[in-house]
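Before the break, one more example. Copy the sequence into your notebook; we will annotate it together after we see the structure.
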Amino acid sequence: MKFNFSEEHLMIQKSARDFAQQELLPGVIERDELQKFPKDEINKMGQMGFLGMMTSPKYGGGGMDTVSYILAMEEISKIDASSSVIMSVNNSLVCWGIEKYGTEEQKQKYLPKLTSGEHIGAFCLSEPEAGSDATSQRTTAIEKKDHYILNGTKNWITNGNSASVYLVIAQSDIEKKHKGINAFIVERNWDGISIGTKENKLGIRGSDTHSVMFSDLKVPKENRIGEDGFGFKFAMQTLSGGRIGIAAQALGIASGSYELALKYSKERKAFGKPICHHQAIAFKLANMATEIEAARLLCLKAAWDKDNGRDYSLSGAMAKLYCAERAMQISVEAVQIHGGYGYVKEYHVERLMRDAKITQIYEGTSEIQKIVISRSILS
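Here is what the structure looks like once it is written out:
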């Protein structure tokens, strides 16, 4: 087994690190404070190729493997988790879902603008009464002669107000339960879409989180993804890959917190020496470094499974669960190492701590990951 990255992997990692330091870091505190969507920064990410990394060059993407994507996600997330979740949704859910399961016409029509950053995508699954229980869709898509009529509300939608393209999961036949669910590509400029107020969130405050409402929205049949009733399977398969991206985001939050804590511990002096030379701090740093290495290996294993055509539902769930838990724990420890300075915005770690919490919740809570894992190991 080889534990070496290719030259291409290292180049992508460095490119993402440099971009995060040069483009994202300067305004990250202000964007968090004002809940400002990073529009200019996302445009630059599109120009750099970060919004369609795994998509085929045929549709304007980078044609890269999942390992490359993981490396970039970690570096971006060390600095700005709000930008990395936008990147994750566009890559893992929207572009991947359309390329994997869409028709050639759908791919040609939507992917080039999504990969370039001209358009941003959103994934509309969660509802007021259907979060973890994705089978309980209340949004309906009633079949007509050549179209569907879409009605319902989706909430907690990342890129809700900024997206030009929505992937919407809706119930077409309640009698068939989850086998009656469909997935649709919906365009923002169609009549019948309204956007709720922006959610005032604890973390990832720069990202655009809204409810999206559909009222008698006409969706052409050619915009359905897959066969009739394929929507639930589409959502679950897409989210399995999305979890690897969120695991990488959580890994980035953890490693970013650790790097800041390590740097501070070498500069801050107490009792006549840098605090890193006090065992209480040194042992914290040792634990953080070990847990981050374990989290990174879980992430890379899930990415390797996906790249090699293996089943990644278990490894992805394990990576997402472990990385999210470690992100929360390590960011809290980073604040503790900073002491009072860690509690103020200037030193960044308090933001990383707030950002970490959502990784335990979205794209499947930690409890859902445990259900996925336990079912797999007990089957």
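The two ends are 28 Å apart (CA to CA). The mean pLDDT is 97. Try to locate both features in your own notes.
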